[in-house]
Specification:
Length: 356
């Protein structure tokens, strides 16, 4: 059975390059489906059955592919992030004694690969099968000032068990840093106009987290979650403590932190779980990465209009980004993001859906 569609998008002049985005839709026999565009490797829609079997689109995004272009909206909705997800302090990386100045696009730091990271660049579909899509990104030496010619892949597989399996891979011809993730904004109600992420239940399998300063940069410390609003080891509503009088929540304007996972890079152990009482949809996250960045949509402010004309308000959705810790290149005591010639970077994440 043919389970995918390739729909030609609209031609657009983007930074001197005219190209038509394409949309790929993968389906399984349970009716679940995911649509992905080669522009930014973005998840455009993710249809999941609720407790009544009704399909709900559980990610934020746009109806028009052109709305993902930065000329219209500077967003990371659904994107495959590279070269380096999250923040690098002052945009500075030193590799083998040589310093590289990266774009400083977020409170003086480099965020998500720079001003024009991979979320604003095209991938190429190199393999498409009934339930899988493999995208390739060729990133030249000097792309956003990162060193090395990098060849990267993102493979999306939709399983019959209603899981979206994402695998990342990259090689380089010169020492560089790599930290890839997906930046889907989840709202498991499928009704972002009327449902806040604060009403959903979150579990994070982590006894500690990395605190941040008031520029959202990690301090280099690792703090226990015990006795703080950062403790999600017992599931609780996202909104229960999000506005508590706690310095880290003031610094992050809510939750926008990396948790140090107790799953110890074992992708057979649940790293996080999100449950929406309104729809009954439950999502488990598995990963072989050491950390997960949880961002509760604090900077959504009603200025972006998404699918169906819905205005995305503050805390309309939550991101669960599996990755290395932020600013790892400048914190050698943390799991390394360094990639050298002859090595292969890999990363694995699974979003598994069910109902309660």
């Amino acid at each position: 059975m043919k389970r995918f569609l390739i729909v030609a998008g609209l031609a657009a002049a983007l930074f001197g390059c005219t190209r038509s985005p394409e949309l790929y839709t993968l389906k399984n026999d349970s009716g679940m489906q995911v649509s992905i565009t080669d522009y930014g490797g973005r998840i455009v829609s993710l249809l999941v059955p609720d407790r009544d079997g009704v399909l709900r689109d559980v990610v934020l995004g746009f109806d028009d592919l052109e709305d993902y272009y930065p000329e219209r909206n500077e967003t990371d909705f659904g994107a495959s992030i590279g070269r380096y997800a999250n923040r690098i302090k002052d945009g500075l990386v030193t590799i083998d004694g040589k310093q590289y100045q990266l774009p400083r696009n977020n409170f003086g730091h480099c965020l998500h690969g720079g001003t024009r990271g991979w979320q604003y660049q095209f991938y190429k579909a190199v393999e498409v099968s009934g339930n899988s899509l493999k995208l390739e990104r060729i990133s030249p030496d000097g792309d956003q000032n990162f060193p090395g010619n990098v060849k990267a892949y993102v493979t999306f597989t939709l399983t019959e068990g209603n899981a979206l399996d994402i695998r990342y891979e990259a090689t380089t011809d010169a020492p560089t840093v790599i930290n890839m993730t997906n930046h889907a904004y989840f709202n498991l109600s499928g009704d972002p106009a009327n449902h806040s992420i604060c009403d959903d239940e979150l579990y994070i399998n982590a006894s500690s987290f990395t605190p941040v300063d008031d520029t959202f940069m990690t301090t280099g410390e690792i703090w226990p979650v015990e006795g703080t609003p950062m403790d999600f080891r017992t599931p609780k509503l996202v909104g229960r403590d999000i506005d508590a009088d706690y310095e880290q929540l003031r610094n992050g304007r809510g939750y926008d932190h990396n948790w140090v996972l107790d799953s110890a890079c074992d992708d057979s152990i649940v790293a996080a779980e999100l449950y929406c009482p309104a729809s009954g949809i439950d999502m488990k996250v598995y990963t072989d990465e050491p950390g997960i960045q949880v961002y509760a949509g604090n900077f959504l402010d009603g200025t972006v209009t998404g699918k169906g004309g819905v205005v995305y308000q503050r805390r309309t959705a939550i991101c669960l980004e599996t990755q290395k810790y932020p600013d790892t290149p400048n914190k050698p005591e943390w799991p390394s993001a360094l990639l050298r010639p002859g090595e292969t970077y890999t990363s694995h994440c699974v979003f598994e859906f069910g109902t309660k």
